[in-house]
Every structure is written in C-alpha cells, then in structure tokens.
Amino acid sequence: MPRPPECEPACWTPGQAARFLRWCHNHDDPLADLFKVLIGTGLRKGEALALHWNDIDLDDHVLFVRYTLSNVNNTTPVFTTPMAKTSRTWIGLSDRVVPALRNQSIRQPDRDLVFTRRDGHPLRHEHVLHRFHCLTAPGDDLAVPAEQAAAPATTTNPTPTTKKSTRSTTSSGRSRATPPSRSNPPPATTARASAATSPCRLPAAPPARRRPRPSTRSVLNAATALGAARSCRCSST
C-alpha cells in the first residue's frame, strides 16, 4: 500500500511574521509576547511554555532551555527534559524578544513560570494552537494566508542582533548563545526549587525493574537435566 504524500509545512516570510506580530501588539493580544518569543528564538512550543525566570538573563540577552512542558494523557502537565541533548543549550535573545519578556514580567509579576494562565497554572498547548489558528484563519482582519501559517516559529528575526559576539545561528533556526559572564548553566537546584513551587510537578524517577522469578516447573526441569548429565558422565567413566 503506497504511503500518502507528506505535507511540507510552509514558512512565513519575514514580512508576514512582522505583520503578524505588529497586529498582535496593536490589538494587545494576551499571547502577543509568547508569539514574539517563539518567532524570535525558534523555541518549540513546549520549551517556551516551560520557561522559568531563573533560566533567563535579560541583561546578557540569553536564556537556557532546561525543561519542556508535556501533557500526560492530555490532562496532567509535567515538566520533562528535552528529548534531544542539543536542546539543552543557551539561546540568544534579540532586541525584540527582550522587551517582550520584560513586558510579560510586568503583565504577570511574581511568578516562577514566564507564561501562565490567570490562576498561575501553565498555558495548555491546545489553547495556544487554538488562539493562533483563530488569528490566522481565512477572512480574519490579519489576512495572513492560512496555508502559510504552519510553522511561524521557524522564521528568523529579520532585524540583525547587536551582540554578534555572544550568539550564532544554527541550521535548525535557533540562535545559540554563549553567555559572556557565565560559562556553565545556572545551578539545577535553583530551577528545581522553583519548579517545585509551580503547579506542575517534576518527572519522578522510573521504578526499578524486577527480574522475573523462575517458576517451580522450570527449576525441576533444570534439576532433572542436570542429574541426567551427571549420570551420563559417571556411566562413561
């Protein structure tokens, strides 16, 4: 049976991405800052929703990807480590992303997570997707083609960054950065303590697997075979 053809996602042009962000900013959309972070950094949706303020340094224009937000059985949000080891890295922040994060800290102050709901719980994946599809639907005032709204987060920022010595662009669309004042990631204990106070829970260690106990029949069969082998040896000698 032939496999169905794969649909190649179309990316926005820099002009379309800038128009989308401008529209969200002018209409004060509640997810405008989140969309700016997604488009300006190339983060995955789960990585952006799991951002903690302890992993962001706005003065040095960098953030560290430590967690990703996953849903267990589509109901329980859980912080997990990214699947790829290369995802745990420093990301450079452009001059457009830093003001968005500062505005988010003013909009929702005194919280461990960067993007949350009104009650402090993390944003749900389906809520972000639903809002994005509503903004890019045909007939909307934004008038962004819906077929070209598949992967806006892969569009890089058209405005070049000022700190070229502290960040570089990778082939996946992310802008990796090396912190100028810190060569190592922030201590994990601080992030764990902040995540423990947040509504989500950290993933527990997997239970140790127990070896299956042999059945009585298998033990008797093995003893019978061993006795037969010994008797053969004695008769041969």
Number of domains: 1
CATH topology: hpI Integrase, Chain A
End-to-end C-alpha gap: 64 Å
How many β strands by DSSP?
Answer: 7
Average predicted confidence as pLDDT? 73
Low-confidence segments: 145-172, 187-206
Highest CATH level, the class:
Mainly Alpha
* Class from secondary-structure proportions: alpha+beta
Quaternary arrangement of the chains shown? single chain
Strand-residue proportion: 5-15%
Largest beta-sheet details: 3 strands, antiparallel
3D architecture notes:
The protein has seven helices and seven strands, in the order H-H-H-E-E-E-E-E-H-H-E-E-H-H. With 237 residues, it is α+β, with helices and mostly antiparallel strands. It has a single domain, classed as hpI Integrase, Chain A (Orthogonal Bundle). It has a three-stranded antiparallel β-sheet, with no helix packed on it. Strands 3-4 form a two-stranded antiparallel sheet. Strand 1 and strand 2 form a beta hairpin. The longest helix is centred in the last third of the chain and has 21 residues. The protein is extended.
